[in-house]
Design goal:
about 200 residues; mainly beta; outer membrane lipoprotein receptor (LolB), chain A; twelve-stranded mixed beta sheet; 1 helix; about 5% helix
């Protein structure tokens, strides 16, 4: 589950921009397929996931270590919910995004515009990003005019995250709620969101 949360957090962080006290979220409903290059351990691993966005809420779905799982994220409410089937037991594990979890790529960390490109058929502007949580402290982020980050690379243009398919379309509200039949559990007090 840690791999799911780490990968989903990477995707969420790249799609959610913090601005002082208010969030600058994507302005369109969309769905996309993301390829995330995880270099957090000594070995590189590639993870593919589907991300959906509706009215400020996100749904990320993928297969991790042989198990499929879903993460629902509400940045405005600072709440994460992991939906998992554990040996036939359907569980919805809720955890707050506490102060350890920033919504990175904050506006003040976006530096100069360094170009433009198309990613998954969408035009986007390339920004230099400065963030101490990014390996090397700098990256390049390609973002659409309506605040959707489609690609993040390191300064050598090695991908960290890239959208391989993208479509703006209305998303069903039921996809962003806990389905019937899941037992809701709260993460115990004192436990924080894994980074």
């Amino acid at each position: 589950m840690k791999t799911l949360i780490a990968a989903s957090a990477a995707a969420l962080m790249s799609s959610t921009l913090a601005n002082a006290q208010e969030l600058r979220l994507p302005q369109s409903d969309f769905e996309m397929t993301l390829r995330i290059h995880d270099r957090s351990n000594d070995q590189e691993q590639e993870i593919e996931m589907e991300m959906r966005h509706r009215a400020g809420d996100f749904r990320m779905e993928g297969e991790f270590q042989g198990h499929s799982a879903i993460l629902l994220a509400s940045p405005a409410d600072r709440m994460l919910t992991v939906l998992a089937d554990m040996g036939g037991a359907r569980m919805a594990i809720q955890m707050p995004m506490d102060d350890d979890v920033t919504l990175p790529l904050a506006d003040e960390r976006f530096g100069e515009v360094v170009g433009s490109d198309r990613v998954a058929g969408e035009p986007c502007t390339i920004y230099r990003v400065e963030d101490e949580d990014i390996p090397g402290g700098e990256a390049l982020g390609c973002m659409t005019d309506d605040n959707i980050v489609l690609r993040v690379t390191d300064m050598d243009n090695v991908p960290m995250l890239v959208a391989t398919q993208f479509a703006r379309r209305a998303q069903d509200a039921s996809l962003f709620t806990v389905p019937a039949g899941y037992q809701i559990m709260q993460m115990p007090a004192g436990m924080s969101f894994p980074r």
